[in-house]
Prior knowledge:
phycobilisome; 14 helices; antenna complex; ARM-like
Amino acid sequence: MTDRIDHLIRAVEEADSSKLLIEAVQNLASAQLNEAIPTLIATLSYNNPGAAVAAVDGLIQLGEPAVPELLDLLDMHNYTARAWAIRALAGIGDPRGLVTLLGVATADFALSARRAATRGLGTMKWYWFPDHLLEIAQAEALDALLFVAQQDEEWVVRYSAVVGLQALAQAITTTHPEWRSQIQAQFEQMATNDASLAVRARVWLAQQQLQTQPEVKIEDRPSPLSAQDWQNILEKLCDRKQQERFMLAEGDPRRYRELAEAIAQKTSNA
Length: 270
């Protein structure tokens, strides 16, 4: 096994053309060996979209063992690699990536990153969450997805928000019917008012599928995360809420939008 993985890694490192690099990364990814994770992640920094796609697919297949190194990559300043890493995190759905996806979906400057993160928020591995954390996490995901659906200027990101909201609605059918109603109300608004025909069509599809497939099947697989992992996730969620309150009070654009609306209303009544 060691000889095989070494051979596959060397093929990636020694590839001297774009085509050979893509083939080498595809072969490494298809091996589905955890030892391949560092090389697959390194591939995300190469200027080769085909190789990056193959690496992302391989990392998604490997799942949770890849998450710590993907999160470490986000601290670096290679924005191309960062966007691919976010795509991988969104595809894996590991709860350790939740807070990262929340931040990227609502505030990242790159629409490709927002698009991937938004889709990922709806398809988290909710069945891994302990009961005391599940409601908090899903509430944060709902708020973020609604914000993106209502505020993002890029139609492809709003389209992904519809996909994420549909998946979340199916996950909360029995536990939070009031949230599901909130999602359905958002869909009604978008189906009529969204500027993009593609987004409106995706909303119509989501509405139809929610009627015929109202609830997703919950997988019965225990979480591999430790008690410390869950504590870290909870602390990050709490930090995020505190930052949101501070920004809204001190400098968030929504605060000034509300102030401007209030002034305009007062002026019109004068």
